[in-house]
């Protein structure tokens, strides 16, 4: 007869169903203690002062003691504070008797609903305050919040804050509630609460400074510009009061660029501004091929022409794409493929 | 604001289009570009930049083979032949008018970059000379004689040399068309044997030599040699004036692409035609002038940036042609450009709307670099 009874060890538990490992609080605390001890040991080893041993020093020490040639930084040995290593998780929400701590536990999204409740409570408070102010005949002061410089938290940030998954619908409802709160006149009282959910947006338009014109010995105005395209680099000097003559690397453009297309590219900035016969240009270019050099000189001359031209026209040039560096470069060849996109011929057998 | 006016590409024939002779009643401002002077003899600086007309019958008579191909197409399209009067041509004409025919023939070398109008200048001079009654010896392109030759015969006259019957007979035919009346007047001074049975007696008109060459293609190269020799020897007498016009003269001293049957390369001296032409171009005869052009486009084994006489002729050619009067030809001056542009507009060759605007004109000038050939090619598709 075969042995039918089985031991519990043989019965495999379905590991995946229980979800990610839950760390207990005690476990995390122990890890933190170990980390701090280890930090002091490491400081002693390196001969530094244990009290003033920062995270950067730790990283440097580890990189020195355990050098690794792996490309992925995340794969190399690291020693960081446990809060950074162990993902923040929600601790077990119920006690030993199995009864959950939070009253909204069985909704499934307890922190989200509790947040909504709190926010609504604040809203009601503000409305009550407003009624009081009206009852006292004081006009409610409305200070404009700086809406331009701040934004609400994104859904991902909110998820991180609440430590539970949200749906798009939930997120939008929360944001609408916040907006409603902010729209009320006496919302200043709850300013601190609202600030928890908004972020400053650093708005800084990078203003490109247009260089002024320079003058050479004869008093002729000129300006320089640099441009590049693929591997070609070009510098151009555009002179005023000219006849439209262009010299590239010491030779005339008719000889340097026998192809019409290249000459058209050179002509484009001048034609756009309507200044074909008015400027002379002397340029130097190196690298790249025929087309790349033409594109590089075009960019350089457009940049140089900015100094001669009003701001509005500079804006038009920018919109026309004359002032943008062309980001296209040769794509890398991948292993297992013949070129960057072309695959090897597929053989059925 | 975003103008992408690349419309202006006019297919202008080789730049130097002749301006038709219209009387200058200023009904239309464009008539300024034309002059009514049909005779090159009367062209002066005030005609510079203007186009003059050559009647079509004259074109056929004077230029059976000399005009650039694109210009011939333009003549067919516009149904008229207009040549621009330009400074180098005026210079040459002035020299020719003032030259003393008793002295040995002066050599003029027209040189310049590609597509600036050297061949057209030569044609202008040829037209002038034919009007004046000179005998014109016009070799359209000497490069045709040193490359792409299908048949090479060993010369019967001289064992080392090679004949080119096809090219020689073609040239003889054209020579006959252009100089009909002279062929009857000039008489041979020696007896020439064409093989065992045929011969031309002394005192026969030169026309017979030409006929002989055309009839017996095998001896065409020798016939050419005879013609050149006779003309050279008789020009000093003064009964006629001889103009030797050679286009692409640097072919005479370069290399050839021809090979003998044993695959050894042929040098130019071994070709009868080239040998005889070299003798003509030497200035040991008087009573005429030699006008030549350098050409890089047809030249063999020369870099495309070479355009000076020294580079294109090589040491040998330079020594052979030295001393000569160099005549440089450059791109269009602004005035010439304007007149060429005006001509195309007038003949409705520039169809694009933008071509009629000032911007269009500036664009054309920029893109072509005021080079006649480039302008011609640009104006084509427009």
TrEMBL record, chain A:
Keywords of the record: Mitochondrion, Ribonucleoprotein, Ribosomal protein, Transit peptide
Family: Belongs to the universal ribosomal protein uS9 family.
Region (Disordered), start-end ranges: 327-349
Entry's localization field: Mitochondrion
InterPro entries: Ribosomal_Su5_D2-typ_SF (IPR020568), Ribosomal_uS9 (IPR000754), Ribosomal_uS9_CS (IPR020574), Ribsml_uS5_D2-typ_fold_subgr (IPR014721)
Keyword RNA-binding (UniProt): no
Biological processes annotated in GO: translation
Family annotation (SUPFAM superfamilies): Ribosomal protein S5 domain 2-like
Xref: Pfam families: Ribosomal_S9
Protein name: Small ribosomal subunit protein uS9m
Gene Ontology terms: cellular component: mitochondrial inner membrane; mitochondrial small ribosomal subunit
Gene: Mrps9
PROSITE patterns linked: RIBOSOMAL_S9
MF terms (GO), sorted A to Z: RNA binding; structural constituent of ribosome
Keyword Mitochondrion belongs to the record: yes
UniProtKB/TrEMBL annotation, chain B:
GO biological process: apoptotic process
Any GO molecular function: structural constituent of ribosome
Official protein name in the record: Small ribosomal subunit protein mS29
Any one annotated GO CC term: mitochondrial small ribosomal subunit
Gene label: Dap3
Organism: Daphoenositta chrysoptera (varied sittella)
Annotated Basic and acidic residues bias: 25-46
Subcellular location: Mitochondrion
Renumbered residue ranges of the record's region Disordered: 1-46
Family membership: Belongs to the mitochondrion-specific ribosomal protein mS29 family.
Principal cellular location given in the protein's record: mitochondrion
One Pfam family matching this protein: DAP3
Signal peptide start-end: none
